[in-house]
Amino acid sequence: MRFEEKLKRYADLAVRAGCNLQKGQDLYLTAPICAAEFARMTVKSAYEAGARQVIVQWTDEAVTRMGYEYSPLEVYEQYPEWMAKLRNGAAEQGAAMLFIDASNPGAMAGIDPRKPAASSRASNAACKPYRDAVNQGKVAWCIIAAAAPDWAAKVFPELPADAALEQLWDCIFQAVRVDQADPNEAWETHRHNFDARRALLNKYQFTSLHYKNAHGTDITIGLPKNHNWAGGGAELADGRCFFPNMPTEEIFCSPHRDRAEGTVHSALPLNYHGNLIDDFSLTFHEGKVTDFSAAKGYDMLKELVGTDENACRLGEAALIPACSPIAQMGVLFYNTLYDENASCHFALGRGFSECVQGGASMSEEELVKAGVNASAAHVDFMLGTADLSITGITADGREIPVFVDGGWASEFQE
Amino acid sequence: MRFEEKLKRYADLAVRAGCNLQKGQDLYLTAPICAAEFARMTVKSAYEAGARQVIVQWTDEAVTRMGYEYSPLEVYEQYPEWMAKLRNGAAEQGAAMLFIDASNPGAMAGIDPRKPAASSRASNAACKPYRDAVNQGKVAWCIIAAAAPDWAAKVFPELPADAALEQLWDCIFQAVRVDQADPNEAWETHRHNFDARRALLNKYQFTSLHYKNAHGTDITIGLPKNHNWAGGGAELADGRCFFPNMPTEEIFCSPHRDRAEGTVHSALPLNYHGNLIDDFSLTFHEGKVTDFSAAKGYDMLKELVGTDENACRLGEAALIPACSPIAQMGVLFYNTLYDENASCHFALGRGFSECVQGGASMSEEELVKAGVNASAAHVDFMLGTADLSITGITADGREIPVFVDGGWASEFQE
Description:
- The structure is a homodimer.
- Chain A is α+β, with helices and mostly antiparallel strands.
- In chain A, strands 5, 6, 11, 12, 13, 14, 18, 19 and 20 form a nine-stranded antiparallel β-sheet that branches.
- The longest helix of chain A has 22 residues.
- The interface between A and B is medium-sized, with 31 and 31 residues.
């Protein structure tokens, strides 16, 4: 298959399986200018799928970085009204959302972390209608990645520029299954596998999970009552399916915000706003980070944990076996969308309304009461190692192996 | 001088002489992604000049074109609220505005002209606060061009891609004087030359101008009472200077909307929304187009004249000698910013408030009463030929030569 053909299949897949774009619907697309060729293809795919209009917001990290370097902090404390109008308006009109990521992992190295953090907070406050539409299953959204020269150079520093770019595209094509005979069918099968595993986890309704490995992780996280494991495909309130992430290999839940006890140690570096935080530990008591350390990027970690008062609590626990297709590539992508699908992870910050039953129609206050964390932050970090064990504890005190030696315990295998 | 150095001087010039950007001021920048490198330089120049923040709206003709191809007309009849918020908000905050143009002249060939026309109308209606700020001298703005591969290929079809791009940049650098020892000083001198010539024209207060050549032009246009010739630098209400166009070689006025009699024949093709209209004539009676013809692009011309009820009236008459620096390059740029500075021209549509005394503080109704046209359209077309004569008629009936054989009559020469 020619490269352009794969690119086109990928664009079609993102618009159709990813966003489940309907005839006459609008598409809101964010795309970095360094991936313009592919972005244009997704625009074309969207129109071919019947989009009424495609609203493209181009982004450029070089410009963003200059802003962080020169603009004062107060600029980031106020979210631009027009941007809120754009995002909230698109959500209120029921537009599908496609986000193309081609970030250069080092793009924001050295910038003052208070600026992106302030920007996250401001965006969170200004775009509530947008977030509500997402949380209430009114809007289908999909994050995908596109290869770009700077990112490729970071992932494959030993290759010449062209070869690195090609290699990164190959990884992407493989991860999103566009190299398979029928990508849409491959994603349907993927969805069904997820469904079966999620159903089993949801049936158990573990009260907590105990994580342990030889790298410093020994932590028990509580799970909310009537919690719901999600992952793979997502469903809109009207029953239509979409894939919020492509690729996706994770099954995830929101831990109870008040019930984490113990220490978790990172398994991979965390790329936070373009800055690496590496070899770090977080210790929790009653759900809150009470202590933390980092061999690299301590200040960034401090900023992250302090984004707001609840960024120090967990919002997500995701299960991915160490033998997942992306893990098997053995590549460190410096990109959450990829690296999070290679390793079990937690997220600090916001939890997901879909992770408790009836959560979609709950207010933020009700969600917090149910144990789902609220925060402007949501940042994944990897903890999965080849020796990780995860044990589920049931309401009646039974201990059920969920992960053994970094992968699914036998009962959970396909 | 190295290419990058010229590019950087150009970026600095646009931000400083062009926009007269002040410390602490915001800059609103629109830039095509095909000119990303230069656009980033202008962002950098703006921050170096003290910009508080630079708001970049990237554009892409390929995406715009797909929209025109696939989206229904009704999409263009409504201006996006967020876009109005963005433009009006920037104007209300007193941001400077920099618009980078690198249009491919053929980009919109064959699209339904009703869509861009509807879009112009909708934008005009939705962005009144923005237009008011511009008309009332509250906002400094500057349009500049950047070379890009598709545009360069059209201008220099005989050259290989790289050479064409380089050649187009060279023309731009020459036209905007960045190849001179001190570009800012060169623009100051330019401004003073304009001032002297404008002062003389304004002193005469011609009641009308009679245009005549052997190519079918024989037309008399009235000038409003207390009219004001503008051009070169412009002035904000607070006295600060800026250059709305770089390059600029024209001195212009708004003809009286009700007083054009006769026929004008085009001297150059008109690139209207990416479609060429060529070898065309417009006949006026009492200020309105009563007949028109075109060897090429008749339907486009019809759409243009009919954009709204006053697009059939004149909004601008500009004087440029046939020996102007850009005319002397002998290049057809297929770009109004350049071609309009190579030839005397008229514009159909909207006139300029600055072209009558006190116009900045007049309402649209008052301007119309004073003779300045109001319309959503403003489209320049070239009429200057090497044999063009223009005669000014004074209130007491004297006939004063203004242009002879395509250039300034002796009284108006430097």
